[in-house]
């Protein structure tokens, strides 16, 4: 069975500082990996996804993530954050066996301080 | 505008009073799903549907029912709500369900409180 662990429940950073949100997964088969963002009082929207190919994936709003198969990780990074990046971020996994669901991590709340 | 809509957005009810949360998408998506979001637990899937008249259980289906009579609609039914169903509920849809490589589009959420 798949599972996702987001290692930090909260991450406070200063504006214009770099940030990394960590995500580890477990799965016995090939996986598809996603990062979703939830702004306050809104639904989730896709930031980026890894399906195959290049392990470095670029998404919207300057975010990128790197798929590391040997470490079963898919960490999200941004070199310089803005106040508007304040949100909750969710890592999610589905697998190539056709399981009809996304398995989400617990979420990481990113707070940007001026 | 392509979107997933949910109604109501907020609901306070009492134990045992049947309720329905509606979900509708206008993107002709095959796959629809319901999640609940609880602090510290992320999102957990309740039910999903691969197409009209095809539904299946997710990870936490107890106490919920769904139906998919039309492609665009996927209502969530709580026959006898209990306080442990107090949560934030999201409906989502994607073009296809198999393998779930497609982006899922989420509704704005329904905050349910059961007293």
Residues in β-strands, percent of chain B: over 45%
- Return Rg of chain A in Å: 14 Å
**Chain-averaged pLDDT of chain B:** 93
* Computed structural class of chain B: mainly beta
What is the H-and-E element order of chain B? EEEEEEEEEEE
Give the count of helical stretches of chain A.
Answer: 0
Strand content of chain A: over 45%
Strand segment count of chain B: 11
How is the main sheet of chain B built?
Answer: 7 strands, mixed
Averaged pLDDT of chain A, please? 90
Identify low-pLDDT runs of chain A: none
List the secondary-structure elements of chain A in sequence, H or E. Answer: EEEEEEEEEEEE
Pick out the low-confidence regions of chain B. Answer: none
Which pair of chains forms the biggest interface, and how many residues does each contribute?
A: A-B, 26 and 28 residues
Question: Any overview of this molecule?
Answer:
The complex is a heterodimer of chains A (114) and B (115). Chain A has 114 residues and is an all-beta fold. Chain A contains no helices and 12 strands. In chain A, the strands form 3 sheets. In chain A, strands 2, 5, 6, 10, 11 and 12 form a 6-stranded mixed sheet that branches. A 4-stranded antiparallel sheet of chain A has the order 3-9-8-7, with no helix packed on it. Chain A has a two-stranded antiparallel sheet with strand order 1-4. In chain A, a hairpin with a 5-residue loop joins strand 7 (56-58) and strand 8. Chain A starts with a strand and ends with a strand. With 115 residues, chain B is mostly beta strands. Chain B is built from no helices and 11 strands. The mean pLDDT of chain B is 93. At the A-B interface, strand 6 and strand 10 of A face strand 4 and strand 5 of B.
